[in-house]
Amino acid sequence: MQSLPLSLRTYGDGARDQLPLLLIHGLFGAASNWRGIARRFAGQRRVLVPDLRNHGESPWDGRMDYPAMAGDLVALLDAQGIERAHLVGHSMGGKVAMWLALTEPQRVASLVVADMAPLTYEGHFGGLIAALLALPLAQLRDRQDADARLGQAIGSSAVRGYLLQNLVQDAQGHWRWRMNLPVIAGSMDVILGFPDAGGHQFPGPTLFLYGGRSNYLTSEALPRIRALFPLARLRSIPEAGHWVYTDQPEPFSAAVAGFLKD
User: Fold this and answer.
1) pLDDT tens track for 236-260
2) Helix, strand or coil for residue 69?
3) pTM for the model
4) Rounded Cα–Cα distance for residues 80 and 174 (Å)
5) Beta bridge partners of 236
6) How far is 223 from 238, CA to CA, in rounded Å?
7) In terms of Cα–Cα distance, which of 162, 32, 25 is closest to 92?
8) Residues near 41 by Cβ (< 8 Å), separated by ≥ 6?
9) What are the pLDDT digits (tens) for 133-172?
10) Which of 28, 50, 56 is nearest to 38 (CA)?
11) Measured distance CA(140)–CA(81) in Å, rounded
């Protein structure tokens, strides 16, 4: 399997006795989503925030599955000369982090999974992706025009804002998506699922942080979590939805900091 050289943002130099922290964004996201959280930890350790394949400024590829995405992160750690790191992954990025921990446990000092479980989820992105693919990029006047057009299919202004961070202009002023929408659309069954762990476990410290207002992590996930991550702890962040680290950044950061300290 050939890895891709991921676009990377780094924060802080980090203390010599502190392992780096790797922050992994979710579906339709980018490294910029983690800016505030990364800055909170940059004073204590080096923080690495990549764009996953087919997202942000990273290369595009026809393969979009968890072994490939985790392989990209292993190659990134190798390129940075990092043997072990702490991982924090949100949503799809949480699944990438879980797969990396299960298959390369020697590279993972600890694991934090934000509002995600190692399960298959029901698909509810079909209409959303269709709306993005149908947006007439050549006709757009500006970002506000794009938002108004998407508003007919995507009612939440917060969701539209999250998605529209991926709408950029090239040097000639033409609008384009910086995420590989066709490949993402064709890979949704894989993204919503989780690979068979084949008997692997991650024996290291693991924390599942979930939003108190989210339904992504429910009691039905507990047996699977315990089977794969025997040292897992679970903690709710009250008043947070699925985007737990943006809804409640201070409690989220405090929970991660306390976990890393332990």
Assistant:
1) 999 999 999 999 999 999 999 999 9
2) helix
3) 0.96
4) 35
5) 210
6) 23
7) 25
8) 11, 12, 21, 47, 253, 256, 257
9) 999 999 999 999 999 999 989 999 999 999 999 999 998 8
10) 50
11) 44
Residues in the chain, how many?
262
Contacts 24+ apart (CB under 8 A), 147-153: 153/127, 153/128
DSSP SS3 for 181: helix
Rounded to whole angstroms, the Cα distance separating 96 from 74 reads: 11
Residue in the structure block whose two tokens are 């429910």: 218
- Residue 109 host element (H or E): strand 108-114
Structure token digits, residue 258: 């306390």
Token output for 112: 């934090």
Check: CB of residue 96 under 8 Å from CB of residue 24. Answer: yes
Q: Does domain 8-121+193-261 have CATH number 3.40.50.1820?
A: yes
Q: Which long-range contacts (CB under 8 A, 24 or more apart) does 136-140 make?
A: 137/174, 137/175, 137/176, 137/177, 138/174, 138/175, 140/175
DSSP alpha helix (H) spans, the chain: 35-41, 66-79, 92-103, 126-134, 143-150, 157-164, 181-186, 188-192, 222-228, 244-247, 249-261
**Starting from the edge strand earliest in sequence, which strands make up the sheet with 206-211, in order?**
8-11, 47-50, 21-24, 85-90, 108-114, 206-211, 232-237
**Domains of the chain by residue range:** 8-121+193-261, 126-186
Structure tokens belonging to residue 77: 């750690």
One-letter amino acid of 5: P
Comparing CA positions, the residue from 182, 58, 194, 61 lying closest to residue 129 is: 182
